Amino acid sequence: MSSETSPHKPRVAVVFGGRSSEHAISVVTAGAVLRAIDREKYDVLPIGITTDGRWALTADDPERMAIADRQLPSVAALAESTEGAVVLPVDPTNREVVYSEPGSVPKALGEVDVVFPVLHGPYGEDGTLQGLLELSGVPYVGSGVLASAVGQDKDYMKRVFTSFGLPVGPYEVIRPREWENDPAAARRKIVDFAGEHGWPLFVKPARAGSSMGITKVDDLGGLDEAIEEARRHDPKILVESLLRGREIECGVLEFEDGPRASVPAEIPPVTAHDFYDFEAKYIDSADGIVPAPLSEEQTAKVQELAVAAFEAASCEGLVRADFFLQDNGEFVINEINTLPGFTPISMYPRMWQESGVSYPELIDRLLQAALQRSTGLR
Questions:
Q1: Residue 286: pLDDT above 70?
Q2: What is the pLDDT of residues 10-26, one digit of tens each?
Q3: Which of 123, 228, 238, 251 is most buried, with most CB under 10 Å away?
Q4: Phi, psi at residue 336, to the nearest 5°?
């Protein structure tokens, strides 16, 4: 531990922003986390990653990280320099973070005891950052490399769930080579899927989140544009049939005796949008119902499935599991998020608040669990 920090306070690097299309939401999440961390208990080092991948020293200013007048924040606007870079040594014997600018002597920022990654999407939530932290020997909040990768790739996520007997809806995958080698055949594959399961379909990137790049396609006429939009975010795309029913979410948090599920929440139909898309989530602030108006049996079932999904993907720390409660009364799991949003309107902290775990307590529990967990095989 550096002499610059209190020997009694673990040093937390809150890493946010990133290269994915969810950059702005990660900044918003970081603002909420920075506001909630107990500064009497932890020293905090905010590190932002710009959209081009530069690790920047940023202002510890949660107010500038919020969405204001429908404008999204960015790391570039918070960075202390346009050229300075933060470096985390890939050396498990050295956790000293260094800051350097062209023409200046590198400056030591002190050692980091734990990283709280609040990055969403590729290059942060998908196992890449987790791999770097494993090589560096720095503990971190959330799932490891495998679970993070599985949780990001909806194709393999569904395959894992299916192998564990968890219920998933009909889907089809178009891989990059399929589209590049024979787009006509790939398109026919989607049309055949629609012929079997009916319209509308949802066309989405396989490895993105926050409803980025998702299009609801009502007929053949909108298919090509939807494919193009999905591929703008990810060359691998997923096609899903419409599941009629209620959208139910459930949080999972790892306690000393294992993972537990929160009370579930319901996402009501969004009248101003075709579906629960990015703007509905973060700009227009659609209200979730917490707890969801479910029977005791339904609540117990979705909690059981949420924990089962957590275990199936070998998750750690936290997960938000998203379901459809179909008209026939059966639950289908749509996806899990291994680093769910912590924005002021995010469902994950709201569900745990209703379950008796306050937002600051939630942050503290995640940090303490990470500090007690070693890197490497476990």
A1: no
A2: 999 999 999 988 899 89
A3: 251
A4: -120, 155
Mean pLDDT of 157-185: 97
Helix (H) or strand (E) holding 259: strand 258-261
Neighbours of 337 (CB within 10 A): 21
Q: What is the dihedral of CA 224, 225, 226, 228, to 10 degrees?
A: 90
Task: Give the contacts of 69 (CB within 8 A, at least 6 positions apart).
Answer: none
User: Which of 223-251 are b and which e, b meaning 16 or more Cβ less than 10 Å from the residue's Cβ?
Assistant: beebbebbbebbbbbbbbbbbebbbbbbb
Q: Are 85 and 10 in contact (CB under 8 A)?
A: no
Q: Which tens digit of pLDDT belongs to each residue from 287-306?
A: 799 999 999 999 999 999 99
Per-residue 3-state assignment (H helix, E strand, C coil) for 82-98:
CCCEEECCCCCCCCEEE
Rounded CA separation 5/1 (Å): 7
- Tokens representing residue 188 in the block: 């026919």
State the Rg of the chain over Cα.
21
In the chain, alpha helices (H)? 23-36, 75-78, 128-136, 145-152, 154-163, 176-181, 183-197, 223-233, 278, 296-312, 347-354, 359-372
Residue 270 phi, psi dihedral angles, 5° rounding = -100, 105
**Rounded CA gap, 254 and 257, in Å?**
8
Is residue 47 within 8 Å of residue 13, measured between CB atoms?
yes
Single out the residue of 258, 260, 280, 259 nearest to residue 269, CA to CA: 280
Q: Give, for 239, the enclosing helix (H) or strand (E).
A: strand 237-241
